[in-house]
Specification:
Elements: H1 3-42, H2 58-91, E1 102-107, E2 117-122, E3 137-140, H3 158-164, E4 169-174, H4 184-201, E5 209-213, H5 215-226, E6 234-237, H6 257-263, H7 268-276, E7 280-282, H8 284-293, H9 295-308, H10 314-324, E8 329-331, H11 332-343, E9 370-375, H12 383-393, H13 397-402, E10 406-412, H14 419-422, H15 424-438, E11 447-455, E12 467-474, H16 476-483, H17 493-511, H18 513-519, H19 522-530, H20 533-539, H21 551-560, H22 570-613, H23 633-640, H24 647-657, E13 665-666, H25 667-679, H26 689-705, H27 707-712, H28 721-736, H29 738-741, H30 747-760, H31 764-771
Parallel strand pairs: 3-4, 3-5, 5-6, 6-9, 9-10, 10-11
Antiparallel strand pairs: 1-2, 2-4, 7-8, 11-12, 12-13
Helix pairs in contact: 1-22, 2-9, 2-10, 2-21, 3-15, 4-5, 7-11, 7-17, 7-18, 9-22, 12-16, 17-22, 23-26, 24-26
Length: about 775
């Protein structure tokens, strides 16, 4: 790009980012004003009437002061208990925070290539019966600074809903300290071994379902891509598979974490931090990044909520902090692999990431259905990061069908990132329905689906909510356009980030790393970890601190003589209004900070991209290129083989000739198909599910783009009169089956059924000549 074009481009970038920045700053100011006015309006000093502040006398003032002081003691005592739990948890080696009992099945520390991972089998609690013949579940938690167990740290969790549905549940955990020299590829091989062990323990069960949470989603996808014959359906919850993606438009919010790598200069900082840790990266740094995302909650809201509800909130607060305050370590090789290939490099989808055998991870080789769960309220893994890898992998909807792949997306409207894994409401609704759907999801035809859960009006006999599940089929091109309004042009500057990161990484390795490593040792690393601010705030407020010795007895005395004010007390309301103002100001600070971060990122890297990479950078997939459907290679290949095949292909083709189009597929219809598979087994092919889906995908393409020719050539697939009779017999039986008759065929379906019978009634030789 010449100098003139660069100047014009820089001006355009400045104007666009400036306008978006101005809009977001205005939105932040207006939001702050609304919240401050609402908080001030809740309790007016000049109000009159019962409960008004003007009526507060000295007695009420003393009662509030006593209540506030008692709540303060209970608040600080809860922090002391948190500190004690932190110290005890660390002394125990940071055991998993699982709510359920478990037993060890395999310990990766004993493998030829040792890793700090292990496979657990969850012991069903009293009153829960597990059927070992049912599909086992393998749950992989994120290794993002915290320890394992969040997928099962309460009864209403992923583990809990799977157990109550009668499935055996296995859990992949990891220990605090990594094994010397272990890499992410070693971990992937260990997890493959775990899955093979689960299959061996359940030889009569369907292949195990793999559930990956956040970074555990990478592990699940890598596992399924490298060992596709061992895994069943894959469930990916809030996993940033396409890390460069995010929202960039006025009014849609932004995703500040995706800009961090660029503004910090790339991956070198992770290497530097690991070198300071004597070859180990402290996960507390990752947790600190999460804390910084929401300063209002990290610095104020969660603590004021504890203070405001000091009588009832401590158990919930301590339960969550028990997991949140456990910080795990990674090897330098692991954090560098993650930052270079995933966070900054964004290479997982491209095939540039190699497994231990040197073969690239091709995500299109996954044979099992994939369920993707994301949330619009997640600013750590926005929906674009969860779904765009599908756009990067598949050029068209037809390619998804031709490969026999089933991809199901589910979107929550508002839940935050952690809520996807830890919320009891989400567990009872979304995760419970996913478990139910996986029973029959393999019966879905190949394609891209949206999963919709609707609540029924009536409740069950136990008073619990009931839900209906339906699947809407979509085209990849439409979903990509809906998620990426700007066709992902905002991702181009991240290529400049990757290039600069490689330069900075090499410079650090040449000029600084030798000195940093020479100055680091085990003692200095331990000191740095112990005095990390997140650890200090825990152990400094524990019984290790002699100044906290009075808190326990004082809290006991307060509980024995508690004099709490009602929540509607005017002074309590004034206190809450003040707390809301503080929270509003911190949220406003975050909005301004994130807006400035985004503007700075694009002003730096959009110009850098155009100057150094604009002329030679490859075009990223973005939104699939819209071409004439018949020109797609998958369509051409399918139509070229329209007369090839046998009974299996004919059965799949007839199924699509008779299929309703444009209608959602409810779970009840999937269950009906499952019954038909059982009742008519002698007429159905004995094929692996993935092979059957590939055949169905090709036949669907044929029916979609050449319906008349598909019907005309149908008899050519059935040269054997016995096979033709077999298919006609199946059609006859289905037409009189009471289950099928319960759903009346449309006139078009009845007419198509008659045409199919007429076509198959002719002589094979004559039909074959006509087809040829």
């Amino acid at each position: 790009m010449d100098a003139g074009k660069q100047l014009v481009h820089a001006q355009e970038v400045g104007i666009k980012t400036g306008l978006v920045l101005q809009k977001r700053l205005k939105n932040a100011q207006e939001a702050l004003g609304r919240r401050m006015q609402a908080a001030a309006g809740d309790v007016e000093i000049g109000e009159t009437g019962p409960g008004a502040l003007s009526d507060v006398d000295s007695y009420n003032g003393f009662a509030y002061a006593l209540d506030a002081a008692q709540r303060a003691i209970l608040f600080w005592d809860t922090l002391r208990q948190r500190g004690n739990r932190f110290v005890e948890h660390a002394a125990e080696g940071l055991k998993p925070v699982l709510h359920f009992e478990y037993e060890f099945v395999l310990d990766g520390r004993q493998f030829e290539r040792p890793v700090n991972y292990a496979l657990l089998r969850i012991t069903p609690p009293a009153g829960v019966t597990v059927d070992n013949a049912r599909r086992p579940y393998v749950i992989i938690d994120p290794r993002a600074g915290h320890g394992p167990g969040i997928g099962g740290f309460k009864d209403d969790s992923q583990v809990g809903v799977a157990l109550r549905a009668g499935h055996p549940v296995y859990f992949v955990i990891f220990f605090r300290d990594p094994e010397p020299g272990q890499t992410l590829l070693d971990v992937c091989e260990a997890e493959q071994r775990f899955v093979r062990k689960v299959r061996a323990l359940h030889p009569d069960s369907p292949k195990p379902a793999i559930v990956g949470n956040c970074q555990g989603g990478w592990a699940a996808i890598m596992l399924a891509a490298s060992s596709p014959d061992d895994t069943g359906p894959i469930v990916i919850n809030g996993a940033p598979m396409s890390y460069w993606s995010g929202a960039w438009s006025e009014g849609e919010g932004d995703n500040p974490m995706r800009y961090a790598g660029g503004l910090l200069g790339g991956t070198w900082l992770a290497s530097f931090t690991a070198d300071l840790g004597n070859g180990k990266f402290d996960g507390a740094h990752l947790v600190q990044n999460f804390e910084n995302l929401n300063p209002a909650n990290s610095l104020w809201d969660k603590y004021y909520n504890l203070y405001n509800k000091a009588d009832t909130e401590p158990p919930r607060f301590l339960e969550f902090e028990h997991w949140w305050g456990g910080y795990y370590l990674m090897n330098r090789e692991e954090i560098e692999w993650i930052t270079r290939n995933l966070f900054v490099g964004n290479k997982l989808w491209s095939g540039d990431v190699k497994d231990a055998g040197g073969k690239g991870f091709d995500l299109r080789e996954i044979k099992s259905p994939i369920v993707l769960f994301a949330s619009m309220g997640d600013n750590i893994t926005p929906p674009q990061q969860a779904f765009n890898w599908v756009v990067d992998q598949y050029a068209s909807t037809e390619e998804i069908k031709a490969r026999g792949q089933v991809i199901v997306g589910m979107m929550h409207e508002s839940i935050g990132h952690l809520g996807i894994f830890v919320s009891g409401k989400v567990a009872k609704k979304e995760h419970a329905q996913i478990v139910s759907v996986l029973k029959t999801i393999e019966l879905l035809p190949p394609g891209l689906y949206g999963m919709v859960i609707t609540e029924r009006r009536e409740k069950d006999e136990h008073g619990q909510k009931q839900y209906d599940v339906a699947f809407h089929e979509y085209r990849l091109e439409d979903i990509a356009a809906r998620l990426n309004r700007f066709q992902r042009v905002d991702e181009r500057p991240f290529e400049a980030v990757a290039a600069l990161s490689d330069f900075n990484q090499r410079a650090y390795e040449l000029f600084a790393q030798p000195f940093v490593q020479a100055m680091s040792n085990d003692m200095s690393a331990r000191m740095l970890r112990a005095f990390h601010p997140l650890r200090v705030q825990n152990w400094a407020l524990s019984d290790m601190n002699p100044w906290m010795a009075w808190l326990g007895p004082a809290a006991d005395a307060v509980r024995a003589n508690r004099q709490a004010l009602a929540a509607d007390n005017p002074l309590r309301q004034q206190e809450q209004a003040g707390a809301e103002m503080v929270s509003a100001m911190l949220d406003s600070y975050r909005a301004v900070r994130d807006a400035m971060t985004e503007a700075s990122f694009f002003n730096i890297y959009a110009n850098m991209f155009s100057q150094f990479l604009g002329d030679k950078a490859e075009t990223r997939p973005g939104v699939p290129v819209i071409t004439e459907p018949r020109e797609l290679p998958e369509v051409k290949q399918a139509l070229a083989a329209i007369s090839e095949g046998g009974y299996v292909e004919a059965l799949a083709r007839v199924a699509f000739l008779l299929t309703h189009s444009g209608e959602p597929l409810p779970l009840s219809r999937l269950e009906l198909r499952k019954e038909l598979v059982t009742d008519y087994a002698e007429y159905l092919p004995a094929l692996a599910p993935d092979a059957w889906r590939r055949i169905r995908g090709v036949q669907e393409i044929i029916v979609q783009y050449a319906p008349d020719q598909a019907l005309k050539t149908l008899p050519a697939l059935l040269n054997d009169p016995a096979e033709r009779e077999r298919l006609l017999t199946l059609l006859d039986k289905l037409s009189t089956d009471e289950h099928v008759l319960g759903s009346q065929p449309t006139p078009d379906q009845a007419a198509m059924l008659a045409r199919i019978r007429a076509a198959l009634a002719g002589k094979p030789e004559r039909i074959r000549r006509a087809a040829g």
